[in-house]
Amino acid sequence: MKSLFTCPICGQPLCAEEDRYVCSGGHSFDRAREGYVNLLPANRQHSKAPGDDKEMAAARSRFLEGGWYAPLRDALCDQVAQCAGEAPALLDAGCGEGWYTAALTDCIAARGGQSGGIDLSKPAVKKAARRCPGGEIAVASVYRLPVGDASVEILTNCFSPLAIEEFYRVLKPGGIFLYVVPGPRHLWELKSVLYEKPYENEERREEYPGFRYREVIPVETRFTLSSPRDIGDLYRMTPYFWKTPKAGAERLSRLETLAVTGQFRIHVMEREK
Questions:
Q1: 42 pLDDT band (50/70/90 cuts)?
Q2: Which architecture does CATH list for 36-271?
Q3: Which end of the chain is more exposed for a tag (fewer CB within 10 A), N or C?
Q4: Exposed, middle or buried, 246 (CB in 10 Å: 0-12/13-18/19+)?
Q5: Is 1 exposed, middle or buried (0-12, 13-18, 19+ CB in 10 A)?
Q6: CA-CA distance, 231 to 238, in Å (whole number)?
Q7: What Rg value do the Cα atoms of the chain yield, rounded?
Q8: Which among 108, 158, 153, 123 is positioned nearest to 36, based on CA atoms?
Q9: What are phi and psi for residue 46, nearest 5 degrees?
Q10: Residues 6+ apart with CB under 8 A from 55
Q11: CB 28 within 8 Å of CB 13
Q12: Could you read off the pLDDT of 120-166 as tens digits, one per residue?
């Protein structure tokens, strides 16, 4: 079967076989038992275990499975349904554990299309592959996507690094880029516990070369986390986990419940022709 992915060594298209991926240049990449393929060459790794670690991937996976961010997932699927043509190709760049990717894969499959997701974290990719048996999942970097030029109609990026030049390269002219970022008061209640003086996220609409804006879609939800574990999982999946003062982390650890606002922005952009 022709793969959405290309060889990270020579750039030729890959063919997906039962237990491996191969290219016409003779390069071969084994498919792991979970179903994913590692397309990150050793000489491009900046550490022995790049990306999020096993604990962070597990925390985010548990939190997302609670359905707290379902309104964002559903809004993304609505956008894909509106933008997708016949037999489209979709890439989820920075797919993490594949919670959003699984829903997007189902949406694309309903139109006879092909989907894939990549992430730098092997623990996350293992979970993504189990969630997305109908899509292709690979360990790879968003800054060196193993995807051909102008080969996908839709590219999604949820809270992941922005590699705008690569995204432009792999999108077809007229292709759609769905970029999810936090709104100004995203997780405001969590931040109010962690910091003495919480700050709003900057809201901006930045123009990127080669793209034009269609719209910015606001998505907002409120939910209550009713256990220390759920609160801890949310905290661990945020950047605040790495930079919160000790006193703030201790305040959070004493909470039994926390009402939270999830505020998102979906930036919908089109690759210029």
A1: confident
A2: 3-Layer(aba) Sandwich (3.40)
A3: C
A4: exposed
A5: exposed
A6: 11
A7: 19
A8: 123
A9: -95, -5
A10: 236
A11: no
A12: 999 999 999 999 999 999 999 999 999 999 999 999 999 999 999 99
* Dist CA 238 CA 86 (whole Å): 36
Contacts of residue 91, defined as CB under 8 A and 6 or more positions apart, other chains included, come to 4, 115, 116, 117, 118, 145, 147, 152, 154, 155, 156, 170
Return the amino acid letter for 126.
K
- The letter for the amino acid at 42 is A
Phi-psi category of 98—alpha, beta or left, where left has phi over 0 and alpha has psi -120 to 50? left
Provide the CA 67 distance to its chain's centre, in angstroms: 16
First to last CA, the chain: 29
pTM (global) more than 0.90? yes
Would you place residue 51 in the very low, low, confident or very high pLDDT band (cuts 50, 70, 90)?
low
Give the 3-state DSSP-derived string for the chain, with helices as H, strands as E and coil as C.
CEEEEECCCCCCEEEECCCEEEECCCCEEEECCCCCEECCCHHHCCCCCCCCCHHHHHHHHHHHHCCCCHHHHHHHHHHHHHHCCCCCEEEEECCCCCHHHHHHHHHHHCCCCEEEEEECCHHHHHHHHHHCCCCEEEECCHHHCCECCCCEEEEEEECCCCCHHHHHHHEEEEEEEEEEEECCCCCHHHHHHHCCCCCCCCCCCCCCCCEEEEEEEEEEEEEEECCHHHHHHHHHCCHHHHCCCHHHHHHHHCCCCEEEEEEEEEEEEEECC
- Residue 147 CA to residue 141 CA, distance in Å, equals 11
